[in-house]
Structures are given as structure tokens and as C-alpha cells.
Amino acid sequence: MTTLARYDAADDSHRALHVVQDDPAIDLAATQRAVADLLTALGRDPSSPHLRDTPQRVAATFAEMLTPTPFSMTTFPNDEGYDELVLAREIPFSSLCEHHLLPFSGVAHVGYLPADRIVGLSKLARVVRQFASDLQVQERLTTQVADFLQTTLRPHGVGVVVEAEHLCMSVRGVHAPGTRTVTSRLLGTLRVDPRLRQEFLALTRTAPGSALQ
Ligand code: ZN
Fold first, then answer.
1. CA dihedral (194, 200, 202, 208) positive or negative
2. pLDDT digits (tens, 9 = 90+) for 92-120
3. Is the pLDDT confidence value at 6 over 70?
4. Structural domains present in the chain
């Protein structure tokens, strides 16, 4: 999936970047057939009363989880010269692990150190949701959110910490329910300035040195 970003022809004070995904089209009918085939392959009877509506429900569920909602990444000039960290903590999200097609969910902490432009806080949550609506691995989700903010806002620094529980770890394999995987990506001054790095990680309550890139 490619993220397409397009600036509106607007004045510089109120710049809206329309964020839409170049999605592969989801074929609902084909997905339903495939789910029915999967049930058959698993030795179940998809025509039984209990399972009759399951292919349709599963197809709708995957379509919903894999379809991001377009939004406008509206940015504003940093007229006040705000130069401290801006952080949105504990943004809830859920995504789909591309290895097992099982959900992983948790929270993201997303921060940046403004340069010339700032962005509405709700947009930070929108960015997380945008990239979570895909077949994902947590590391890539973390990187994509950070890199997107770096590209669109051009701030002095960006920090993203993602904590999530993966169903593929809790209900199968190692059977480790409650285990949270932590990933992070720090860019710019948040990466290279030890004081800023510490401040950011303290604000996200993440132990220094844990799973840092
Ligand atoms: Zn998995």
C-alpha cells in the first residue's frame, strides 16, 4: 500500500494535506468464497446453520480493518515559535499482523519537536490509524508513522513509541498473553540529543534503552 499525500492549493497559513491510500481493491465476493473454502479446508461445513453467515462477516471484518479513512493533515505555521515537545500519549489502535492475519492492538505515543509548522493533535491519532489499517508488522507501523511526520511536518525531531499485544503471541506459539512488544523510532534531535531523547522517553513512560532503534 502506498500513501499518497497531496497538498491543497491553499494559502500557506492553513495547509491541508489530503492523505489517501492507494489501496489494492478488496474483492468482497472473492474474500467470502475464500473464507468458505478455508472453512471447508479446516474440515468444517460452511453451509451449516452456525457458519452460514461467517464468510460474509469475516470478509466485512477484513475489509473494515484494511480500509483506512482518508483525512486532511492540516498544518499551521508555528507563529508562537513553540519549541518544546508536543506529545500525544496512548493513542489506541488495532492492526493486523501480516504473518498470521491476527490482530495486534495497543497504544502509540507520538511526539514531535516543532520547527516551522504545527499540526492539530487529533491528526497524530489519524496518522497512527492510517498506517494501522493495513497488513502490518509493528516495527514497520512505527517507522511509517515517524517517517510520515518527518516528511510532512519537517519538525526538528520526531518520536514514536508503540506498545502492543499480539494475538499471535498470546493465543498460539509461545502462549504469552499480556506480553507487550515495544518498538520505537526517533528522528532528528530526538534521536541525537540525549536530553531530548530522555525527556521524550520519560514522557512516554518507557524504560530507557528498551527496544530502541
Ligand atoms: Zn503474527
1. negative
2. 999 999 999 999 999 999 999 999 999 99
3. no
4. 28-65 (no CATH), 77-203 (3.30.1130.10)
User: What's the gap in Å between 33 CA and the centre of ligand 1?
Assistant: 24
Which sequence positions are flagged as catalytic? 97-100, 138, 166, 168
Expressed in angstroms and rounded, the spacing between residue 103 Cα and the centre of ligand 1 is 8
Q: Which tens digit of pLDDT belongs to each residue from 135-156?
A: 999 999 999 999 999 999 999 9
Sign of the alpha-carbon torsion through 61, 162, 114, 156: negative
Half-sphere exposure of 182 (CA within 13 A, CB side): 14
pLDDT of residue 68 exceeding 60, the answer is yes
The whole-angstrom separation of Cα 130 and Cα 202 is 26
Report residue 87 as a C-alpha cell: 506529545
CA–centroid distance, residue 177 to ligand 1 (Å): 13
Cα-to-centroid distance, 201 and ligand 1 (Å): 26
Judging by beta carbons within 10 Å of its beta carbon (0-12, 13-18, 19+), is residue 109 exposed, middle or buried?
A: buried
